[in-house]
Structure formats: structure tokens, C-alpha cells
Amino acid sequence: MKRFLLAACAAALMLATAACGLGSESTGSEGPVSRVPELKPDQKVSIVFESYNFGQAGAWPDTFNELIAAFEKAHPNISVTAQKPQGNSANPATDTISSLQSQLTAGSPPDVVQLGFSDLDFTVNQLKALPLDDLVGKDTVQANFDGEQYPYAASARTLGDWEGKTYGVPFVFSTPMLYYNKQLFTQAGLDPENPPATWAEVRDAAEAIKKSTGKDGAYVDCLTKAAKDWCFQALVRSGGGRVISEDRSRLTFADEPSVEVVRTMQDMVKAGAMPNRTQMQAVESFARGDLGMILESSAIQGTFLKGAGDRWELGAAAMPSFDGKQAIPTNSGAALFVFSKDAAKQRAAWELIKFLTSEKAYTTIATKIGYLPLRTGLVDDPDGLKQWADENPYLEPNLKQLEHLEPWVSMPGANYLQIRDGMMQAVENAVYQGADPAEALRSAQKEATALLPGGGK
């Protein structure tokens, strides 16, 4: 059972951190992009769809293969070859950029690619994803967002935009959720129907759980290099800071608001309210029932429900706030981009994107995988997701957080991965290794600034 749970946790974590995130100083695709004509009804086209979901096991590839089969039935003239990114990593999401780069170099890129929002700068400016506004027309792109019945959530529509143009259509993502063990809350004398709303309350509840049950209190899966930076950005924004200036010219993750966020988390570890665990250890511990709370992506909800079984009850709440401030969630996840070189394939690629982001597709994706349905009106539709939403009490906090969602910001330049990882290593060193938060972040920011385009000048 433990071995199965570990495998399930690993698979879920691959998705949770999948696009959780190289950029030049150029802008957009190389040269003008021509508008592509509609396909003729009898025009046969074959395209390749590359997604890290095909490298998983269970619900993810099964669901995507089901959608591809439905698309081909609806478009008998378009054949789709599904493939995972090329590479040998245990987590196929880490191979997405290198896989695409090698295929672009060889002159035969996949036609549609699922890439993380953390890679947006590099995807647009270096890999030259095609601007969909130019390819099929801005009105066409916006009509897809509007949908046949239900539009995209307003905060989700522009997550794949760059300098006013849509390059990627947001596809699957989550916001940070506070999952908690209702049984441990009851045992600690806490109200399981009144979960913590602030980080001060999280710390108090965690200490109560530790004292009363001997179990660990709370874990914030935003504070290690393995967690990437999507959730850490949410913490920093909620604390009143930013990891990078709004004009993208200057790194700001060593500013006082970020330092205070890291110090708050470090204090929880020092007080024994948060265990010193790896990401994987914490997820497994919570699923097993040995951890009271965890801030995590909804992509792992299925793992938690399976771990709970009939032994304990899973609760879920919105991301806590810092005292006196509004919590500002950011998004995890990925968008769909077009890299086809042939006009017919470009049009077929767009047809696939439209299908995969349709009401029908989101109904399938939400119910079979658990991802957030970006066409939120589906949850009130008896013929859509109403029954599923009524049976899924964990959905409401996630949907509500879309109302004040801010984008997961990609780092600039060809060295964006080193910038992101250096920042997160400093956070990890401070929170779990006891390094001074201000000094750790300041040192990492100095090194990262030299990696910015133009050396940060």
C-alpha cells in the first residue's frame, strides 16, 4: 500500500509542478505570420500534439486519449499523433523545453505543444511560438474564449498573452489550496468546519495539532527548489511584494515583503509548527493522515482523497492571508501553443486547441482528472458540471480564488531557469536550513541579476 501511495504521489506531483517553469530580448515569432485559411472538408491533415500528460500513468493519458479520439471523430479529415516530450527524466514535464528545442533544431517541431506558464517569455521570444491573433484572427481567438455557452473566467483569458497578443490558450491549472485533515482538527479541539484563514491561524492550529495528536501541523509546498516558484509568487504577492518588477527590468525577490514572507515560514519551522520535509515526504505524510494541513495544488487532490479513504475526511479552504492583507493566488499549469510550419497544419492545430478548450472537453477533464474548469459557468449547468460540483466541495475555494487571481510570472532571459532555481534555493536554505532570510535572498538576487538580459543593466 505504501509503495502504491508513493507512486501515486509522485505521479500527481509531476503534474502539480509540471509547468511550475529560456527568453531573449527579441519579441514574438520570426517574421510576419499570415492568416491561415479554413480547411476544406475533404482536406486530409496529420498533426502532432506533444504533452507531458502522455508521459503519466492512469487518468491523465487515458483522458487525453479519449479527447483525441473524440476530436478525430468530429474532424475525420484531421489525424492526431499524441506524444510525450523526448527525454529520459522521471518527470516528463521537465523535458518539455529541451524536447521542443531539439525538434525545432531538426526542423520538425510538434504542431501543438502544452507548455508551462513559467516558460512563457522563452516560449514566445526564443522558441517563437506563433501568435494566434495573427494566425487565425483576434476575433476568432476571442470567440473561442467566449465559448459556445460559457466563457473563460476573466482572469484566465490573458495568461498566455504577450505584449497584447495571445500566443497560448490557457488549458489546465490550479490555485494554491489549503487542504486539511478534519479528523486531526477534531482531535486537537479545533473546528473542522472553520479552517484557518490567516497564516497566524495556521500556525496556531498547527501547534495545537502537534501538541494534542503528536502529528505534524502544517506544510507549505511553496518553499523548496522542487516546488518551482508558482506558489511562492502567490505568497510574496499576498505579502505585498513581487519577485520581479512590473516592467521586468529588475529582480525584487530580496525586497522586504519577500523577506518577511520567508521569515514567517522560517519561524513556523523553528516553532515546530511546520516539519522539515521534502516536497515528496510532506505529500505522502498528508495522504497517510500524519499531517494536519498542506498548502498544495488541486492537481494532487485525487491522491489525498485516495489516501484518506474511509479513515479520515479531507477538508479544503482558500489560501490563507497575512494579517491585514488580501490573499493573492497565482496559477500553476500550462497553455497550448502552435509551432506548425505548414498552413494546413496550423489551421488543424488551432482546431485541436479549440476542441481541447471547449465546454465538452472541460467537462471531461474536470470530472476525470480534477483540473479546474476554466469555463466556470459549467459548474451551474445540470448538463455540464453541476452534479460533479455539488459532489465536490473542494471545488468552491479554487473557483472563488479565480476572482482575484494574478498570473504566475515567468522570469526573463535565456537563463530564466537558473534565476528561478537560485531564488527558490535561497528560500529553501532560509526556511529549512536556518539561513538568514534577508541575506540569503539578497545574495541569490545579486547572482541572478547578472543572469538577466544585459546583465540587469
Distinctive features:
alpha/beta; disordered N terminus; 42% helix; single chain; 457 residues; D-Maltodextrin-Binding Protein, domain 2; 2 domains; 18 helices; five-stranded mixed sheet; globular; four-stranded mixed sheet
DSSP, total strands:
11
Helix content: 40-55%
Write the element-wise H/E pattern from the N-terminal end onward: HEHEHEHHHEEEEHHEHHHEHEEHHHHHH
Regarding CATH, which class of the largest domain? Alpha Beta
Overall mean pLDDT: 92
If you consult CATH, what is the topology of the largest domain? D-Maltodextrin-Binding Protein, domain 2
Using the alpha-carbon principal axes, give the shape.
globular
Distance between the termini: 54 Å
How would you write the strand order of the largest sheet? 2-1-3-11-6
Q: Give the number of domains.
A: 2
Unreliable stretches covering 5 or more consecutive residues: 1-9, 18-29
Radius of gyration: 22 Å
Tally of alpha and pi helices: 18
By secondary-structure content and strand pairing, the structural class works out as alpha/beta
Largest sheet: 5 strands, mixed
CATH architecture group name of the largest domain: 3-Layer(aba) Sandwich
Can you say what the CATH homologous superfamily of the largest domain is?
Periplasmic binding protein-like II
Strand content: 5-15%
